Amino acid sequence: DTGIGIAASQQGHIFQSFAQADSSTGRQFGGTGLGLSISRRFCRLMGGDITVRSAAGVGSTFVIDLPLHVSEAAVEEEAIDSPPQTGQGGDLVLVIDDDPGMLDLLGRLLNREGYRVATATTGDEGLAIVQRQRPQAIILDVLMPHQDGWSVLSTIKNDPDTRAIPVIVLTMLDDSEMAFSLGAADFMTKPVDRHQLAASLRRCGLVPREGTVLLVDDDPEARVLMRRALADGRWQFLEAADGWQALDLMQHRQPDLILLDWLMPGMSGQEFLTRLRDNEKNRVSTPVIVVTSQRLDGDQDSLDTLRALWISKSELTRGALQAAVGHALRDTRIKARLAEG
Fold first, then answer.
1. Which of 51, 92, 214, 311 could form a disulfide with 255 if both were Cys (CB 3.0 to 4.6 A apart)?
2. Is this prediction's pTM over 0.70?
3. In terms of residue numbers, what domain contains 224?
Protein backbone atom coordinates (compact mmCIF):
# COMPACT_ATOMS: atom_id res chain seq x y z
CA ASP A 1 0.00 0.00 0.00
CA THR A 2 1.48 3.40 -1.00
CA GLY A 3 -0.85 5.46 1.18
CA ILE A 4 -0.23 7.50 4.32
CA GLY A 5 1.75 4.82 6.18
CA ILE A 6 1.67 4.04 9.88
CA ALA A 7 3.93 5.50 12.56
CA ALA A 8 6.01 2.98 14.52
CA SER A 9 4.23 3.96 17.76
CA GLN A 10 0.88 2.93 16.24
CA GLN A 11 1.87 -0.35 14.63
CA GLY A 12 1.44 -2.36 17.83
CA HIS A 13 -2.33 -1.82 17.97
CA ILE A 14 -3.66 -1.46 14.45
CA PHE A 15 -4.75 -5.11 14.58
CA GLN A 16 -7.03 -4.48 17.57
CA SER A 17 -10.77 -4.24 16.99
CA PHE A 18 -12.04 -0.73 16.21
CA ALA A 19 -8.48 0.63 16.11
CA GLN A 20 -7.08 2.98 13.47
CA ALA A 21 -3.68 4.63 13.17
CA ASP A 22 -5.08 7.84 14.64
CA SER A 23 -8.48 9.41 15.25
CA SER A 24 -8.36 11.51 12.07
CA THR A 25 -8.00 8.47 9.80
CA GLY A 26 -11.63 7.41 10.13
CA ARG A 27 -12.87 10.92 9.49
CA GLN A 28 -10.70 11.36 6.37
CA PHE A 29 -10.81 7.88 4.84
CA GLY A 30 -13.74 6.13 6.55
CA GLY A 31 -13.78 2.59 7.85
CA THR A 32 -14.60 1.01 11.20
CA GLY A 33 -11.19 -0.27 12.26
CA LEU A 34 -12.27 -3.90 12.02
CA GLY A 35 -10.68 -5.01 8.74
CA LEU A 36 -7.21 -5.80 10.04
CA SER A 37 -8.56 -7.37 13.24
CA ILE A 38 -10.78 -9.74 11.23
CA SER A 39 -7.95 -10.48 8.78
CA ARG A 40 -5.62 -11.43 11.62
CA ARG A 41 -8.32 -13.62 13.18
CA PHE A 42 -8.78 -15.55 9.92
CA CYS A 43 -5.01 -15.95 9.54
CA ARG A 44 -4.63 -17.28 13.08
CA LEU A 45 -7.56 -19.66 12.70
CA MET A 46 -5.50 -21.30 9.95
CA GLY A 47 -2.33 -21.40 12.03
CA GLY A 48 -0.71 -18.32 10.48
CA ASP A 49 -0.54 -14.59 11.12
CA ILE A 50 -0.44 -11.17 9.46
CA THR A 51 2.28 -8.59 10.16
CA VAL A 52 3.08 -5.08 8.98
CA ARG A 53 6.13 -3.06 7.97
CA SER A 54 5.44 0.63 7.52
CA ALA A 55 6.84 4.15 7.54
CA ALA A 56 4.68 7.24 8.02
CA GLY A 57 4.21 9.12 4.77
CA VAL A 58 5.77 6.32 2.71
CA GLY A 59 3.36 3.39 2.81
CA SER A 60 2.84 -0.02 4.33
CA THR A 61 3.57 -3.64 3.49
CA PHE A 62 1.32 -6.31 5.01
CA VAL A 63 2.61 -9.88 5.01
CA ILE A 64 0.31 -12.87 5.45
CA ASP A 65 2.03 -16.07 6.57
CA LEU A 66 -0.08 -19.24 6.18
CA PRO A 67 0.71 -22.97 6.33
CA LEU A 68 0.37 -24.93 3.10
CA HIS A 69 -2.12 -27.32 4.69
CA VAL A 70 -4.80 -26.36 7.22
CA SER A 71 -6.76 -29.10 8.95
CA GLU A 72 -10.38 -28.54 9.89
CA ALA A 73 -9.58 -29.89 13.33
CA ALA A 74 -7.05 -27.11 13.86
CA VAL A 75 -9.62 -24.50 12.89
CA GLU A 76 -12.17 -26.01 15.26
CA GLU A 77 -9.65 -25.95 18.08
CA GLU A 78 -9.26 -22.20 17.62
CA ALA A 79 -13.01 -21.53 17.54
CA ILE A 80 -13.69 -17.96 18.59
CA ASP A 81 -16.31 -18.82 21.20
CA SER A 82 -14.09 -21.12 23.31
CA PRO A 83 -12.10 -18.88 25.69
CA PRO A 84 -8.74 -20.04 27.02
CA GLN A 85 -8.86 -21.89 30.31
CA THR A 86 -6.57 -21.18 33.23
CA GLY A 87 -5.54 -24.84 33.39
CA GLN A 88 -4.67 -26.88 36.46
CA GLY A 89 -1.39 -28.13 37.83
CA GLY A 90 1.12 -26.86 35.27
CA ASP A 91 3.61 -24.03 35.65
CA LEU A 92 2.25 -20.48 35.42
CA VAL A 93 3.20 -18.53 32.29
CA LEU A 94 2.51 -14.79 32.12
CA VAL A 95 1.83 -13.35 28.64
CA ILE A 96 2.26 -9.57 28.26
CA ASP A 97 0.93 -8.25 24.95
CA ASP A 98 -1.35 -5.33 24.10
CA ASP A 99 -3.05 -7.32 21.31
CA PRO A 100 -6.11 -9.20 22.69
CA GLY A 101 -5.99 -11.56 19.70
CA MET A 102 -2.42 -12.57 20.51
CA LEU A 103 -3.31 -13.06 24.19
CA ASP A 104 -6.18 -15.29 23.11
CA LEU A 105 -4.01 -17.32 20.74
CA LEU A 106 -1.15 -17.79 23.20
CA GLY A 107 -3.58 -18.65 25.98
CA ARG A 108 -4.99 -21.47 23.89
CA LEU A 109 -1.59 -22.75 22.82
CA LEU A 110 -0.22 -22.73 26.37
CA ASN A 111 -3.35 -24.33 27.85
CA ARG A 112 -3.10 -27.06 25.23
CA GLU A 113 0.50 -27.69 26.31
CA GLY A 114 -0.66 -28.01 29.93
CA TYR A 115 0.41 -24.64 31.38
CA ARG A 116 -1.58 -22.26 33.54
CA VAL A 117 -1.79 -18.80 31.95
CA ALA A 118 -2.05 -15.23 33.23
CA THR A 119 -2.33 -12.32 30.80
CA ALA A 120 -1.66 -8.59 30.84
CA THR A 121 -2.31 -5.96 28.16
CA THR A 122 0.14 -3.35 29.47
CA GLY A 123 3.62 -3.35 30.92
CA ASP A 124 2.43 -1.93 34.24
CA GLU A 125 -0.23 -4.60 34.58
CA GLY A 126 2.30 -7.29 33.72
CA LEU A 127 4.82 -6.06 36.30
CA ALA A 128 2.09 -6.04 38.97
CA ILE A 129 1.25 -9.67 38.16
CA VAL A 130 4.94 -10.59 38.30
CA GLN A 131 5.20 -9.19 41.82
CA ARG A 132 1.93 -10.74 42.95
CA GLN A 133 2.01 -14.21 41.37
CA ARG A 134 5.68 -14.90 40.57
CA PRO A 135 5.12 -16.77 37.27
CA GLN A 136 7.59 -19.46 36.27
CA ALA A 137 8.11 -17.77 32.86
CA ILE A 138 7.06 -14.64 30.96
CA ILE A 139 6.29 -14.24 27.25
CA LEU A 140 6.77 -10.57 26.40
CA ASP A 141 5.85 -8.41 23.41
CA VAL A 142 7.97 -5.33 22.66
CA LEU A 143 5.68 -2.95 20.74
CA MET A 144 3.27 -1.77 23.42
CA PRO A 145 1.96 1.72 24.26
CA HIS A 146 3.05 3.65 27.37
CA GLN A 147 5.73 1.16 28.47
CA ASP A 148 7.40 -0.96 25.83
CA GLY A 149 8.71 -4.47 26.30
CA TRP A 150 12.35 -3.42 26.61
CA SER A 151 11.46 -1.31 29.64
CA VAL A 152 9.47 -4.16 31.17
CA LEU A 153 12.33 -6.61 30.60
CA SER A 154 14.85 -4.22 32.18
CA THR A 155 12.63 -3.76 35.23
CA ILE A 156 12.26 -7.52 35.73
CA LYS A 157 15.97 -8.20 35.35
CA ASN A 158 17.03 -5.31 37.62
CA ASP A 159 14.89 -6.59 40.50
CA PRO A 160 16.72 -9.21 42.62
CA ASP A 161 13.38 -10.86 43.45
CA THR A 162 12.36 -11.39 39.80
CA ARG A 163 15.55 -11.47 37.74
CA ALA A 164 15.66 -15.30 37.81
CA ILE A 165 12.29 -15.57 36.01
CA PRO A 166 13.00 -16.54 32.37
CA VAL A 167 11.59 -14.07 29.85
CA ILE A 168 10.89 -15.09 26.25
CA VAL A 169 10.61 -12.09 23.94
CA LEU A 170 8.02 -12.67 21.20
CA THR A 171 7.66 -9.73 18.83
CA MET A 172 7.38 -8.52 15.24
CA LEU A 173 10.75 -6.77 15.62
CA ASP A 174 13.92 -8.56 14.57
CA ASP A 175 16.18 -7.45 17.41
CA SER A 176 17.45 -10.51 19.23
CA GLU A 177 20.67 -8.72 20.15
CA MET A 178 18.78 -6.17 22.25
CA ALA A 179 16.67 -8.91 23.88
CA PHE A 180 19.65 -11.01 24.95
CA SER A 181 21.64 -7.98 26.09
CA LEU A 182 18.81 -7.12 28.50
CA GLY A 183 18.66 -10.66 29.89
CA ALA A 184 16.01 -12.48 27.84
CA ALA A 185 16.13 -16.27 28.00
CA ASP A 186 14.98 -16.62 24.38
CA PHE A 187 13.84 -14.54 21.41
CA MET A 188 11.23 -15.36 18.77
CA THR A 189 9.53 -13.38 16.03
CA LYS A 190 5.83 -13.45 15.24
CA PRO A 191 3.94 -15.37 13.93
CA VAL A 192 4.35 -17.72 16.85
CA ASP A 193 5.42 -21.31 16.21
CA ARG A 194 3.70 -23.55 18.76
CA HIS A 195 6.39 -26.23 18.80
CA GLN A 196 9.21 -23.70 19.00
CA LEU A 197 7.50 -21.96 21.92
CA ALA A 198 6.86 -25.24 23.77
CA ALA A 199 10.51 -26.24 23.31
CA SER A 200 11.67 -22.85 24.59
CA LEU A 201 9.58 -23.17 27.75
CA ARG A 202 10.94 -26.64 28.43
CA ARG A 203 14.49 -25.35 27.98
CA CYS A 204 13.64 -22.81 30.67
CA GLY A 205 12.87 -25.71 33.03
CA LEU A 206 9.09 -25.38 33.11
CA VAL A 207 6.76 -28.25 33.99
CA PRO A 208 3.66 -28.17 31.77
CA ARG A 209 1.52 -30.52 33.84
CA GLU A 210 1.58 -32.04 37.29
CA GLY A 211 4.81 -33.93 37.78
CA THR A 212 5.58 -36.72 40.22
CA VAL A 213 8.21 -36.31 42.92
CA LEU A 214 9.67 -39.28 44.75
CA LEU A 215 10.74 -38.32 48.30
CA VAL A 216 13.33 -40.76 49.67
CA ASP A 217 14.16 -40.20 53.35
CA ASP A 218 13.99 -42.40 56.46
CA ASP A 219 12.79 -39.39 58.52
CA PRO A 220 9.00 -38.83 58.10
CA GLU A 221 9.32 -35.22 59.32
CA ALA A 222 11.91 -34.49 56.64
CA ARG A 223 9.52 -35.81 53.99
CA VAL A 224 6.80 -33.51 55.36
CA LEU A 225 9.14 -30.50 55.06
CA MET A 226 9.99 -31.38 51.46
CA ARG A 227 6.29 -31.74 50.60
CA ARG A 228 5.55 -28.33 52.10
CA ALA A 229 8.41 -26.72 50.18
CA LEU A 230 6.91 -28.01 46.91
CA ALA A 231 3.25 -27.56 47.83
CA ASP A 232 2.28 -25.30 44.92
CA GLY A 233 -0.21 -27.60 43.16
CA ARG A 234 2.22 -28.76 40.46
CA TRP A 235 3.41 -31.97 42.04
CA GLN A 236 2.09 -35.34 43.10
CA PHE A 237 4.15 -37.15 45.71
CA LEU A 238 5.46 -40.65 46.22
CA GLU A 239 7.32 -41.48 49.44
CA ALA A 240 9.90 -44.08 50.35
CA ALA A 241 11.67 -44.62 53.68
CA ASP A 242 14.81 -46.15 52.14
CA GLY A 243 16.54 -46.88 48.86
CA TRP A 244 15.13 -50.38 48.48
CA GLN A 245 11.54 -49.14 48.83
CA ALA A 246 12.27 -46.33 46.34
CA LEU A 247 13.59 -48.76 43.71
CA ASP A 248 10.51 -50.93 44.21
CA LEU A 249 8.18 -47.93 43.73
CA MET A 250 10.00 -47.02 40.54
CA GLN A 251 9.17 -50.41 39.06
CA HIS A 252 5.53 -49.28 38.96
CA ARG A 253 5.78 -45.52 38.42
CA GLN A 254 8.59 -43.42 37.02
CA PRO A 255 8.96 -40.08 38.85
CA ASP A 256 9.84 -36.82 37.13
CA LEU A 257 12.08 -35.79 40.02
CA ILE A 258 13.69 -37.44 43.07
CA LEU A 259 14.55 -35.74 46.37
CA LEU A 260 17.02 -38.04 48.12
CA ASP A 261 18.49 -38.23 51.62
CA TRP A 262 22.17 -39.19 51.64
CA LEU A 263 22.39 -40.96 55.03
CA MET A 264 19.84 -43.76 55.37
CA PRO A 265 19.92 -47.21 56.97
CA GLY A 266 19.79 -50.26 54.71
CA MET A 267 20.70 -48.60 51.43
CA SER A 268 22.43 -45.22 51.50
CA GLY A 269 21.56 -42.40 49.14
CA GLN A 270 24.82 -42.90 47.28
CA GLU A 271 24.15 -46.61 46.72
CA PHE A 272 20.59 -45.87 45.56
CA LEU A 273 21.83 -43.20 43.15
CA THR A 274 24.54 -45.52 41.77
CA ARG A 275 21.97 -48.26 41.12
CA LEU A 276 19.58 -45.74 39.56
CA ARG A 277 22.19 -44.46 37.11
CA ASP A 278 23.22 -48.01 36.20
CA ASN A 279 19.57 -48.73 35.36
CA GLU A 280 19.36 -45.57 33.24
CA LYS A 281 22.27 -46.28 30.90
CA ASN A 282 21.46 -45.09 27.36
CA ARG A 283 18.49 -43.11 28.72
CA VAL A 284 18.07 -39.53 29.88
CA SER A 285 18.71 -39.39 33.62
CA THR A 286 15.95 -38.73 36.14
CA PRO A 287 16.80 -35.43 37.87
CA VAL A 288 17.94 -36.01 41.47
CA ILE A 289 18.49 -33.49 44.25
CA VAL A 290 20.22 -34.78 47.36
CA VAL A 291 18.68 -33.16 50.46
CA THR A 292 20.85 -33.94 53.47
CA SER A 293 22.03 -32.66 56.84
CA GLN A 294 25.60 -33.63 55.91
CA ARG A 295 27.89 -31.22 54.07
CA LEU A 296 28.79 -32.84 50.74
CA ASP A 297 31.43 -30.42 49.46
CA GLY A 298 33.99 -33.22 49.58
CA ASP A 299 31.70 -35.50 47.56
CA GLN A 300 31.13 -33.03 44.74
CA ASP A 301 33.07 -35.15 42.23
CA SER A 302 30.92 -38.19 43.04
CA LEU A 303 27.75 -36.13 42.75
CA ASP A 304 28.88 -34.76 39.39
CA THR A 305 29.60 -38.29 38.17
CA LEU A 306 26.19 -39.46 39.38
CA ARG A 307 24.54 -36.36 37.86
CA ALA A 308 22.93 -35.01 41.04
CA LEU A 309 22.60 -31.66 42.75
CA TRP A 310 22.58 -31.24 46.51
CA ILE A 311 21.12 -28.87 49.07
CA SER A 312 21.60 -28.80 52.84
CA LYS A 313 18.57 -29.46 55.06
CA SER A 314 19.60 -26.43 57.11
CA GLU A 315 19.05 -24.30 53.98
CA LEU A 316 15.79 -25.99 52.95
CA THR A 317 13.50 -23.06 52.21
CA ARG A 318 10.74 -23.02 49.59
CA GLY A 319 12.72 -20.60 47.43
CA ALA A 320 16.01 -22.52 47.67
CA LEU A 321 14.41 -25.88 46.88
CA GLN A 322 12.33 -24.55 44.00
CA ALA A 323 15.44 -22.90 42.53
CA ALA A 324 17.29 -26.23 42.76
CA VAL A 325 14.33 -28.02 41.16
CA GLY A 326 14.29 -25.55 38.27
CA HIS A 327 18.03 -26.02 37.76
CA ALA A 328 17.76 -29.81 37.85
CA LEU A 329 14.88 -29.91 35.35
CA ARG A 330 16.56 -27.43 33.02
CA ASP A 331 19.84 -29.39 33.08
CA THR A 332 18.03 -32.68 32.36
CA ARG A 333 16.09 -31.25 29.43
CA ILE A 334 19.20 -29.79 27.86
CA LYS A 335 20.82 -33.24 28.04
CA ALA A 336 17.67 -34.77 26.55
CA ARG A 337 17.81 -32.40 23.59
CA LEU A 338 21.49 -33.19 23.02
CA ALA A 339 20.74 -36.92 23.18
CA GLU A 340 18.01 -36.49 20.58
CA GLY A 341 20.51 -34.78 18.28
1. 214
2. no
3. 211-340
